[in-house]
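R.M. (postdoc): so does anyone remember the format we settled on? I'll just put the structure tokens first.
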């Protein structure tokens, strides 16, 4: 029964709390037991605070007993990626360069919203150093592994959050996405991961990688993703990019269906080589969308690969992340991060500004594209998960991680909402992800489409390791 409790969705947990079928303490104990069992095999956490989690669960249990739950998530176990400030816990960013002996007295906006809504904070999930790459290994924490095959990567940089979600080590998980860091691990581990419209979920401090970086939910179901976005979205004055507050519940209308929506299906964006098994799974998913009533047309959005534009933003961001780091710490950095940051230092200002201008043209192109199409559908990734502990899927032919993530980073540049939902498996049993991209601020539509697909093809969870 403990294992069954650990895999319940947040929505199901809240229903059980209302009916007094389960208690937050019982659930938290079950989830902590699951962490104790799985963590040695997958390395998804950099910190677990059992005492704090159980104290929060007891407080939630008392509120439910009084019939006065706090907010929308009272008693639901959650995790926070170790790039986001969390009061009372160090934020190490996967780095040996960060001194844990600091006050740590502030919550990031997303962490604060979870706490305000009564969530039970379990701990912090792993990230590559400063979140710089699309896999999850770091000098501080070592290698995080994919629960479907422990020899493979879960992707990154929100790899710990994805693994925790897939294995029931918490119901809800905060990730960040600067070039695919929510959608990549969601695709590789078979969970749901949403990169919201930029500014929908406030951030503080702002990412050193700038306005390509988003904060968003990672869950086992689309309904939980909508619930979590309802909590995380809103205004925070510490983020000058934050969108205005809106009294919106993203669960409302989630089941309304998708009949009649105009959808562009781009299997390769016009320039990506896709693994045949991935292509077949995504094509089958698109057939489901057609059966759901979407009007699907095979069409590319009409832009060339913006890789150079992304690299100039990302490399400059890496240099910015390390700008105040004392020289003596550089030798302890992930060598790849050091190389990218050193390259970022050498980008001429006018070249960087040219990339900013080109980014603006890409964003305009996609906004115009969505005048004709409600949604754009692509694979989440062109390949299944590869070996853990390496940055590249093909080390002999690839130079940096964006070489194998061409479906994700364009939509960080454009800042649109995009979700990855699981859509099948390869013959080796590795998950495949379907990416649904919406127009700017079309988060509710993206969630509705994802939920419609999920209603036909629900998530499958991996077996427990060990």
């Amino acid at each position: 029964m403990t294992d069954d409790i650990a895999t319940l969705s947040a929505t199901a947990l809240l229903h059980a709390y209302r009916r007094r079928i389960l208690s937050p303490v019982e659930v938290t104990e079950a989830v902590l037991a699951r962490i104790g069992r799985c963590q040695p095999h997958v390395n998804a956490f950099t910190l677990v605070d059992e005492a704090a989690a159980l104290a929060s669960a007891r407080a939630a249990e008392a509120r439910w007993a009084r019939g006065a739950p706090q907010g929308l998530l009272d008693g639901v176990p959650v995790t926070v990626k170790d790039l986001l400030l969390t009061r009372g816990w160090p934020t190490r960013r996967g780095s040996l360069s960060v001194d844990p002996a600091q006050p740590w007295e502030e919550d990031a906006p997303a962490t604060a919203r979870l706490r305000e809504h009564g969530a039970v904070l379990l701990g912090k999930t792993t990230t590559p150093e400063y979140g710089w790459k699309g896999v999850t290994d770091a000098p501080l924490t070592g290698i995080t592994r994919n629960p479907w095959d422990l020899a493979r990567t879960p992707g990154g940089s929100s790899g710990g959050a994805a693994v925790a979600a897939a294995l029931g080590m918490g119901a809800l998980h905060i990730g960040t996405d600067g070039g695919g860091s929510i959608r990549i691990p969601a695709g590789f581990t078979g969970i749901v991961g949403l990169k919201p419209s930029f500014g929908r979920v406030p951030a503080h401090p702002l990412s050193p990688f700038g306005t390509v970086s988003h904060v968003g939910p990672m869950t086992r179901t689309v309904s939980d993703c909508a619930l979590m976005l309802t909590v995380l979205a809103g205004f925070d004055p510490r983020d000058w990019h934050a969108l205005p507050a809106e009294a919106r519940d993203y669960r409302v209308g989630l089941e309304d269906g998708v009949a009649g929506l105009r959808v562009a299906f781009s299997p390769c964006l016009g320039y990506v080589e896709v693994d045949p098994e991935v292509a077949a799974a995504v094509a089958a998913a698109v057939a489901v969308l057609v059966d759901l009533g979407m009007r699907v047309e095979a069409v590319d959005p009409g832009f060339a690969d913006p890789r150079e534009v992304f690299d100039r933003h990302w490399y400059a961001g890496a240099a910015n992340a390390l700008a105040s780091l004392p020289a003596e710490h550089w030798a302890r950095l992930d060598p790849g991060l050091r190389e990218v940051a050193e390259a970022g230092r050498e980008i001429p200002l006018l070249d960087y500004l040219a990339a900013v201008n080109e980014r603006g043209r890409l964003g305009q192109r996609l906004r115009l594209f969505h005048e004709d199409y409600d949604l754009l559908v692509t694979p989440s990734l062109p390949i299944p998960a590869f070996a853990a502990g390496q940055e590249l899927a093909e080390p002999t032919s690839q130079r940096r991680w964006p070489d194998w993530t061409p479906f994700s980073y364009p939509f960080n540049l454009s800042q649109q909402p995009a979700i990855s939902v699981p859509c099948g498996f390869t013959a080796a049993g590795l998950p495949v992800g379907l990416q649904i991209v919406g127009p700017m601020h079309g988060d509710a539509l993206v969630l509705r489409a994802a939920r419609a697909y999920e209603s036909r093809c629900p998530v499958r969870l991996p077996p427990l390791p060990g």
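R.M.: ...and that's the designed sequence above, right after the tokens. Also worth knowing: The chain has one domain: 2-456. The chain has a mean pLDDT of 97.
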